[in-house]
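Re-running Polyamine aminopropyltransferase to confirm reproducibility after the cluster update. Everything else is unchanged from the original entry.
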Amino acid sequence: MIDRQEQLSPPQSAVCLPVRPDAGRFLVLAAVFVCAACGLVYELELVALASYLIGDSVTQASVVLSVMVFAMGIGSLLAKRLRCRAAVGFGLLELTLALVGGCSAMVMYAAFAWIGESRVVLVAFSLAIGVLIGAEIPLLMSLIQRISRRDAEGTVADLFAADYVGALVGGLAFPFLLLPWLGQLTGGLLTGAVNAIAGGSLVLWLFRRDLTPRSRGWLLVANVLVLAVLATATALVDDFERAARRAVYGDQVRVAVHTDIQEVVLTGRPSGPPDLFLDGRLRVSGRDEYRFHEALVHPAMRGPHARVLVLGGGDGLAAREVLRYRDVTSVTVVELDPGVVRLARTDPALTELNDRAYRDPRTRVVTEDAFSWLRSARGGYDVVIADLPDPGITPSTKLYSQEFYGLIARVLADRGRLAVHAGPVTSRPRTYWTVDATLRAAGFGTSPYRATARASGFAAGPDRATGRAFEPYDWGLLLAAPGRTPELGLDPRAPRLRSLSRAVLAAEAWGAERTRGRDLPPSTLVHPRYTE
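Result of re-run:
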C-alpha cells in the first residue's frame, strides 16, 4: 500500500537550503501569500477595466471569473509536467505572470483605443492569467515538500490558508489603495513588479542550490528584463494615457480628470461648445444637447413647478432649462460625482453651455447617490427630472427599478410629474418599454415620447465600445404621474424653445408609440431586466 505522504511528494530528494527548514517553509508560504494577492489584483483589474471600456459590469465580471476559474484548472493539470523541475518552473511561471498580468490593463486599453474592440483581449488575458495562477499551487506544493516531507495534510492546509489570506489582502488593496492612489495602469504594473520580485527572490535565493549555474543565470537575466520592461512602462504610462486618450477622444481634449467615481473628459474647440464624456461614454454633445434637455424638462413643467428636483444632471444642463421659468423657486440637483459638478461650475465652456446654472441662488446641490438620498428626503416637489445614465449600464439599473420609482412617488407633491430618460427607443425598444412597465408597476401613469438627434449627434450609450457614436439616434423619454396619465404638452408660459413645440411633441409621441410591443415585466432591485 502506497503511503499518502509519498503520493503527494515529488520524486526528488530534499534540497539543501541556506536557512533552517522551518524558516524555508515560512518563506514559501510568504511567497504564496504575495502571489495570491497579486493574482487577485490582476483579476479585479480586468473586471474594472472591462466594465469601464465595454459596460455591463455584471457580464464582464462573469466572463472574467468563469474563464479564469476554468483556466486555473487547466493550469493545475499542465503544472504536472513541471514538477520534476519545480524551482525553475516556478521561477519562469512567476516571471510570465508578472509580465502578462502587469501589462494586461495597458494592452487592453491600447486595444480599445486604437482598434476599438477589447472583448477578445479580455478573454485572452483572463485565460492566460488563469492558467498561470492555476499552475502556482502544484509547483509550490512540490517546493515545500522538498523542504519537509512531514505532515502532508498540514502542508496543504497551510498553503491554501496563505493563498486565501493573500487573496483577501489583494482584493482589499485594489479598490482602497491601488486604484485611488495609482490608477489602473500604474497599479497593475507595480503589482507585476512585486510579483516578479517575490517569485524571483524565492527561487534565486532559497532554492539556488537546486538550480544549475546555467538556469540561475538565465533566470536572473529574465528577472532583470521583466523588471526593466515594467519599470519602463511605468515611466511612460502618462505619455501612453495621453496618446490613448487622443486616439479615443480625438485631438481636441480640453480637460481630462479622474474623480473618485469615474473619468471625466471634455473635448471640443476652444471657441465651440464642449462634448462631455463620462467613463468613455459620450453624455453631452454641445451641438445637440438642447434637443434632449428641452424634451426632457419642458413637458414636465406644464402645471405647478415651483419646486423642482433633478436626479443626476450634474452638468447643469437640465437645471438650466428649469431655471428659465421665472416662477421656479428652488431647484435641487442630486448628483453622485462632485467632480462633475465642480467642472460644471468652473470650466468656461461648460458654464457657458449650462448658462451658469450653479450660480443661480435658486439652485441647491446635493452630492449623494440618488437612491440613498430619496430614502430620507422630504416631499413636496412639483416636478422630478430623472436625468440619469442609460438603464442598460449595470450600475444604473437600480435607478430604473420599481423600488426607485416608489421612492420618487413619496417625494412628489399632489399633481406632481416625473420625467424619465429611458434610453433609445429605436435601437433598444425592449429597454425603453421595460422602463415604462416599471413605472406603471410603481403606480404611475405614463405618456411615452422621444426626442430625435441629428445624424451626427449624441449617443448616450458606450459609443466608443460599440462604434455607434455618430449614427442617427433618438432619446426615449417618459412623462409620468402617480395614479393618472399625464397629458403631453407645454406650459403656456414656457420660454421660447429651439427644437420643441406641441406639434413636434405629438409627432414624437407617435414615433415612440409605434415601437410598443408585448407587455414586459417590471424591473426590480433583485430582478433587473435591462438586458437586450
